[in-house]
Amino acid sequence: MVKDTGYKAHRYISYVQLGRILDSLDYEVFNKLNDAYFEVNIEQTADDWYAVDGKELRGNIDAVSGEKRGENIVKSVSHQDFNSQVIGFYHGSKDSEKTVVQDYFSTQESIESAYSFDALHTCPKLLENIHTKGGIY
After folding, report:
1. Nearest 5°: CA angle at 122, between 52 and 119?
2. Which of 30, 58, 59, 123 shows its CA 20 to 30 Å from the CA of 45?
3. Is the per-residue pLDDT at 105 higher than 90?
4. pLDDT tens per residue across span 60-95
5. Where are the domains of the chain?
6. How far is CA 17 from each of CA 21, 22, 23, 24, 73, rounded to the nearest angstrom?
7. Whole-angstrom Cα distance, residue 68 to residue 33?
């Protein structure tokens, strides 16, 4: 991409700067670059995008009994209006966020929205499940 844009960076950008760059990204130009280099064209066909992630609930670890992990919540947050929906819960020492997310999507009859995940969830089983039910990831 540096060859195409002519931009020469003198140092790495920060996470905050990356967010600003991505906010101003022209997805049509991005698609042309993807198509030119990888023969992949990504179109945003879904209007509703959701971020799926798990968070540990503060104050629930029983340090007296030696616990290092506590109760966790997994939720889906709308990219558009930041409203959230609880997908499920798990206990850090017994279950995993990955299992909760896979179980949630496997119970859905059809999926009409688009979802973004962190690297933990980018496994073929989950992504195939979303794709076959009409969702985007």
Report:
1. 75
2. 123
3. yes
4. 666 666 666 778 889 999 988 889 999 999 887 656
5. 2-38, 49-132
6. 6, 9, 10, 11, 29
7. 45
Dihedral angle of Cα 36, 50, 54, 20, to the nearest 10 degrees: 60
Alpha-carbon distance of 90 to 82, in angstroms, equals 23
Residue 18: both structure tokens together: 């990356």
What is the full DSSP assignment across 32-71? HHHHHHHS-------S-EEEEEEEEPTT---GGGT-S--E
**Calpha distance 82→2 (Å, rounded):** 34
> What pTM, to 2 d.p., does this model score?
0.62
Encoded tokens for 72: 């966790």
Alpha carbon distances (Å) from 106 to 62, 102, 121, 129, 135? 32, 6, 14, 7, 12
Give the per-residue SS3 of 113-137.
CEEECCHHHCCHHHHHHHHHCCCEC
b/e for 45-62, b at 16 or more Cβ within 10 A?
A: eeeeebebbbeeeeeebe
